[in-house]
Amino acid sequence: MPKILISAGEPSGDRYAATLVEALRRRHPDLEFFGCAQPLMLAAGVRPVIDAAKLHVVGVFEVLTHIPGIWKEYRRLIRAAATERPVLAILTDSPDFHLRVARQLALRKIPVVYLVAPQAWAWRSGRTRQMARDIQKLLCIFPFEERWFRDRGVPTDYIGHPLARQVKPTVTPADFRRELGIPAGHRLVALLPGSRPGEVRRHWPILLAAVEKLKNRPITFVLGAVPSLGEQFFVNQMGSATIQGSVSNVKVIEGRTWDLLASADLALAASGTVTVEAALLGTPMVTFYRVTPASWALGKWLVRTPYFTMANLIADEKLVPELMQNEATGDRLAAETARLLDSPADLAQMRAGLARVARLLHTGHDPIERAADIVSGMLTEHV
After folding, report:
1. CB of 238 within 8 A of CB of 218?
2. What is the maximum span of the chain, computed from C-alpha positions, in angstroms?
3. Does the pLDDT value for residue 14 go beyond 50?
4. Cβ distance 223 to 213 under 8 Å?
5. Is 0.90 surpassed by the pTM of this model?
6. Fold category of 173-361 in CATH
7. CATH topology for 3-160+364-382?
8. Cα(28)–Cα(26) distance, rounded to whole angstroms?
9. What is the spatial distance between Cα 52 and Cα 46, in angstroms, rounded to a whole number?
10. pLDDT score at 63
11. DSSP secondary structure string, 271-298?
12. Where is pLDDT greater, at 332 or 37?
């Protein structure tokens, strides 16, 4: 039975990888998948050989304290690859981990497909030399990436963004608001602090401070809890926050991010995949992000990109307000929220820009089916 090593270190990568596993199984029912598996990959039948939860770390210096655990999982994954000899490996996102894995797989003559390109166009562009050496096919999901990587010798195909076909609400905004008991005449503002524990702990006090500033306005705030952390984790953060007065004004809902975004008048979103989801749903947003001061100082020195939010990068203009690091405060988030909610013209202009971004992310075919076709072709060569 042919085996494929497949690995994803993030919730967004889990979704893409799990869908790809299902598409490949339709073409090759005898395939066996093993590797670093998140919940959706586990549900798709991927056999885990390492603990994916230990890879959920963001920030240059934050990673340092987790190196022993990450190194242990890395060695276990490489040992599994050496023992089980997969015909091919599919690595998804998480470049700091997966590019090291790719090097070891290449040394063992295991072909590597890399799904979701590392953001080498933003920082550490020298990684493209290793990618050209170790990766047989890079599958990128943003339109500007294909030419950038090909110009640097990396065999790359733009498949389109998987979320462009996946992001759909399950209920109407009216039904969603009714379900949550949102009063008539209230604006709905989504609070999306991130999908990793460290992100949520850094961002929740800022969001709650913004809620406190806006408490006298007719706004209902809804916190989107990601299933990988669970609703209770977010409730615990609310309970431990230094500002207690506004907690009762925040509703929490788990696993309904798309319904929440599709129903929201505005989203306050940690910069990441959720901002792409918001763009595809046409939801106006304010983005923010904080890391440790040391990570931010190093990142400012290394990063070479005009914007942090993907919608702005794709549009090549600042469609969406970005509040990063020291600018990410409760006062600034509250001020941007009030400004946008008080300006129908600004909201309409942002929605029009986000619609242009959404069109660029659609390619006319299913990105994951396209990825499965490419992988199937490689399997034919190597099986």
Report:
1. no
2. 65
3. yes
4. no
5. no
6. Rossmann fold (3.40.50)
7. Rossmann fold (3.40.50)
8. 6
9. 12
10. 43
11. SSHHHHHHHHHT--EEEEE---HHHHHH
12. 332
